[in-house]
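Closing statement on the L-homoserine sub-project.
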Amino acid sequence: MMRTRPLKVALLGCGVVGSEVARIMTTHADDLAARIGAPVELAGVAVRRPSKVREGIDPALITTDATALVKRGDIDVVVEVIGGIEPARTLITAAFEHGASVVSANKALLAEDGATLYAAAERHGRDLYFEAAVAGAIPLIRPLRESLAGDKVNRVLGIVNGTTNFILDRMDTAGSGYSEALDEATALGYAEADPTADVEGFDAAAKAAILAGIAFHTRVRLDDVHREGITEVTSADLASAKRMGCTVKLLAICERAADGRSVTARVHPAMIPLSHPLASVREAYNAVFVEAEAAGQLMFYGPGAGGSPTASAVLGDLVAVCRNKLNEATGPGESAYTQLPVSPMGEVVTRYHISLDVADKPGVLAQVATVFAEHGVSIDTVRQKGRQDGNGEAALVVVTHRAPDAALSGTVEALRKLDTVRGVASIMRVEGE
Ligand code: HSE
């Protein structure tokens, strides 16, 4: 039976994503109503610049007073697509207090203070859904929160930032330098005018925190995530990776420790073998591998950003939240019962690719190998090439077996102190083997 009284939706933000949400709500109104069991009506749109022309949106719905909109009392669902910590946190909390459920795309806020939002939702018996916060259109939050709720997830490994994937892809396939590839990403609208959040890994780290928390049923905050961006990745790194049959990707990696007593979450550039499915994720696409005990390996792939893909995820949540509302039910809330601590990066165990500039004379290789041995880091392969210019230097590339990150850091620190090591050109982790 279709309910005739519409469910009222308040939209906070009408930029690239918000305007698409409004457009789809209007153009697909009948389908949405049929799927939900009641019509959904856009009841207000809070914006910063009211004078901007917004095609397809009744100007009477536009307001600059987001606080008054969420406190109206007749709003069923607040869709928050303004981003940032404040005023989003205060508005979302007020929405719950005034009887609305919330659909949010706000990765920064969820990673920084998801616990406050979950608690407010629970206190008021409302829903907090946020599929759009991680990897745009790709269904990932719901599969983790619901489809895999009966399984045990041990690892989440993925490319969750499209801008950096585009840049690294260009560096790999077109041989571009970092700045050139960044310029191209900016010209195509992937990178923001200030690309810091993407290229320094903040965006991916927020997504890693959200994924790790849900996957391992514990609380993981942005500060718990080890973060390195791609600004130091060079064409030489890509060339080195190619020689090893690898490419370089900015990866978000969330893992349960082997003893099951802790978890780790990290974002950094890493070499992955070309045979790994993530190596073929090109351009600005995202892809996430989930490894679960019973399910095995699952891969989720698709557009991780952009107005329409992100709006698709928002609309999916909107339908779910509206259905819950009609059924006087709520969907899943926070699940942090395992209370697993997040271990520091030093405890992460992985492989490393290290490029050194060394003096090309007898005994240097042995000296370098000794430093690795003294720190308990076992060497897998070594490649040395004397420089053609005859300056008495050689490029030494060492690939290690798996070792704790702290042991590798100690090794590099000691290597830097050797007179015969002229420089550490790059250190990159090797993943996905
Ligand atoms: N800027 C992000 C990306 C999309 O490039 O993937 C929003 O999280």
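The first strand starts at residue 7 and ends at 12. With this model delivered, the sub-project is considered complete and its resources will be redirected to Aim 3.
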